[in-house]
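Our collaborator T.R. sent over the components below with a one-line note: 'Predict the complex.' Nothing else. No constraints on interfaces, no templates requested, no preferences about which chain binds where. So this is a plain run: every listed entity goes in together, and whatever single assembly comes back becomes the starting point for the next discussion.
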Amino acid sequence: DAKTTQPPSMDCAEGRAANLPCNHSTISGNEYVYWYRQIHSQGPQYIIHGLKNNETNEMASLIITEDRKSSTLILPHATLRDTAVYYCIVQDQGAQKLVFGQGTRLTINP
Amino acid sequence: EAGVTQFPSHSVIEKGQTVTLRCDPISGHDNLYWYRRVMGKEIKFLLHFVKESKQDESGMPNNRFLAERTGGTYSTLKVQPAELEDSGVYFCASSQDNGYYGYTFGSGTRLTVV
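Returned assembly:
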């Protein structure tokens, strides 16, 4: 079973920041937080990951709370192409397999 | 570089027939994974290859499914005989390392068993 909880759906206006929350209250010390997304008719796409520090790359920012029990994925300037299902996954590096939950269906509106 | 390629993109077969799905990982990626999403359910892990060896096949649903990766390059997933509940989208992914920097997924094969 997935170890994360996400809202089933969210809406965001084009050009605004999209903030996607994720709860992972049972995360253990050696588990990372990964975010993937699946755009319609494509395979899942890796976005970003982190352990305890905030992370930023060309796609998004990841904010992890100090107690590591929750995190937020931030798409700073959402575009219509960011409409997708976003998955928050906690993963032990030794596991080498992803456990997907239902994810959050993000809709970017013009 | 070329991404993960899956063939065919769609397949429609009758119950009881055999279907073989193919996955070509990114060149040089030793790790290859199969996942699937059946109707209304989450994406589920099926198995993991390291080169030609099966590292973890805990997600394979039953013995009607056979995965191979001869020579450690491309992989095939055969379903024989196919059942209605096998319908879904089958994804392949690959990674150079243990997935720390993420896995690269293919676009999937949509299998419909009628």
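Summary for T.R.: Chain B touches chain A through 25 residues (CB under 8 Å).
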